[in-house]
């Protein structure tokens, strides 16, 4: 199915703290004709979702995992407790992350009780 027709108009909230990764993700979402709202941290995303909770403004949340202050796993936990909204988390392997951090994130994803998609 062509990118210009597959789920066109999907309302996506994307959380990414890295400027370059955020721009790449934004371009991909626009290429797919999704209505993307980009934010730089989990708290801003959570505040937006709470404000729009009754209005159901988003169909999907895409979140980075490794972020300062509140990581993607905590965001998923709070979203799943407060609202019915699918979340996709993305963990990019970057050279400045240690092997321990990558292992720790993987372990948290596998032991999570949430039915979300991790890639």
TrEMBL record:
Residues 11-119 form the Response regulatory domain. InterPro entries: ARR-like, CheY-like_superfamily, Sig_transdc_resp-reg_receiver. This is Response regulatory domain-containing protein. GO terms for biological process: cytokinin-activated signaling pathway; phosphorelay signal transduction system. Keywords: Two-component regulatory system. PANTHER family: TWO-COMPONENT RESPONSE REGULATOR, TWO-COMPONENT RESPONSE REGULATOR FAMILY PROTEIN-RELATED.
């Amino acid at each position: 199915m062509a990118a210009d027709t597959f789920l066109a108009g999907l309302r996506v909230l994307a959380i990414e703290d890295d400027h370059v990764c955020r721009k790449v993700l934004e371009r991909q979402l626009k290429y797919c004709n999704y209505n993307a709202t980009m934010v730089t941290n989990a708290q801003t995303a959570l505040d937006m979702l709470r404000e729009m909770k009754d209005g159901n403004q988003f169909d999907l949340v895409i979140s980075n995992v490794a972020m300062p202050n509140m990581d993607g796993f905590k965001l998923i936990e709070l979203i799943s407790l407060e609202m019915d909204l699918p979340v996709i988390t993305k963990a990019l392997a970057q050279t400045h992350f240690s092997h321990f951090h990558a292992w720790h994130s993987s372990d948290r994803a596998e032991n999570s009780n949430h039915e979300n998609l991790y890639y």
